[in-house]
Amino acid sequence: MPNRIIKFIAVICGIAFLAASCQKSFDPGTTTSTKMANGWWVTFTVGGADVYGLGTFFLTTYNQSSNKNDSLWIDDLGHSWEFKCKVAANYGALTFAAPAALNDYTGNTSTVTVTNGKVLPKAGTTKGGNKSDSLYMQVKFSDDPSATTYVISGTARTGFDEDDY
User: Fold this and answer.
1) Is residue 150 assigned to a domain?
2) Alpha-carbon span 162 to 165, nearest angstrom
3) What is the 3-state secondary structure (H, E, C) of the chain?
4) What residues make up the domain containing 108?
5) Pairing relationship of beta strands 131-141 and 150-156 according to DSSP bridges
6) Domain annotation covers residue 67
7) pLDDT tens digit string along 7-51?
8) Which terminus of the chain has fewer Cβ atoms in its 10 Å neighbourhood, N or C?
């Protein structure tokens, strides 16, 4: 009888080992756009001036559901011109642009042109004095009668309280 129990336990352990070894490793916390996807503390300026008095606000960049590193979403979360659009990304160069991306917040009735978009690793200094990635882009909106080119720039959110606005 004890011999059967030992064999049974050995078989169960063997099956458990085989089942565990067949599982694929998966890290649900990463994306293919890790170096470009982030939350950013940014300003919205023309010629260095905060023409709308927005101050520093939060903007996000994130990958599309396809999880490919050739495109990104840019979303101002309604804090500036209220825009959310997809842009083409060059992950190797950490750059992005869009000649006339549909603005998701307007029901795709207007477009956003994004030029000179780039992420600069460790090139920014946060509000608290910490080193952080920097974001820069120029944007134009089809529903802006003045056809002004705005500059959106800032630093990556670090998660430290002293860096948040």
Assistant:
1) yes
2) 8
3) CHHHHHHHHHHHHHHHHHHHHCCCCCCCCCCCCCCCCEEEEEEEEECCECCCCCCCEEEEEECCCCCCCCEEEEECCCCCCCCEEEEEEECCCCEEEEEEEECHHHCCCCEEEEEEEEEEEEEEECCCCCEEEEEEEEEEECCCCCCCCEEEEEEECCCCHHHCC
4) 38-159
5) antiparallel
6) yes
7) 666 666 656 555 555 554 545 567 777 889 999 999 999 999 999
8) N
What are the residues facing 62 on neighbouring strands? 73
Query: Phi and psi (nearest 5°) for 75?
Result: -140, 120
Number of domains in the chain: 1
Is 67 within 8 Å of 85 (Cβ atoms)? no
CATH number at residue 125: 2.40.128.220
Q: What is the pTM of this model?
A: 0.81
Candidates 146, 142, 145, 86; CA nearest to 117 is: 86
